[in-house]
Design a protein that fits this description.
- It contains three helices and three strands.
- The chain is α+β, with helices and mostly antiparallel strands and 89 residues long.
- Helix 1 (27-43) runs parallel beside helix 3.
Length: 89
């Protein structure tokens, strides 16, 4: 997983997901991963406010490891939120 974040232009940040057909060939698996990622973002939305971010799946992933990938994205997001807090006065 790769997370790219930047300060949001508006007070409410946005999130985007990039999951290619090459990484997850079946649409049902791509959609399931996106649902898991959206749910993870909902859980920490108040902390991630003020950030625009893109979460990208970089490598091929077996469908059995989708929850693990969402966990990795949560870890990356927590690091990005912590870094943003350190930068804010």
């Amino acid at each position: 997983m790769q997370l790219v974040s930047a300060p949001a232009a508006k007070s409410i940040g946005r999130a985007g997901f990039v999951v290619s057909r090459k990484a997850l060939p079946r649409a049902v698996d791509r959609n399931r991963l996106k649902r898991l990622l959206r749910e993870m973002l909902r859980a920490i939305r108040c902390d991630a406010n003020g950030l625009d971010m893109v979460i990208r799946l970089k490598r091929t992933l077996p469908p059995q490891r989708l929850p693990e990938a969402a966990g990795e994205a949560a870890r990356l997001l927590a690091e990005a939120v912590a870094a943003a807090r350190r930068e804010r006065p």
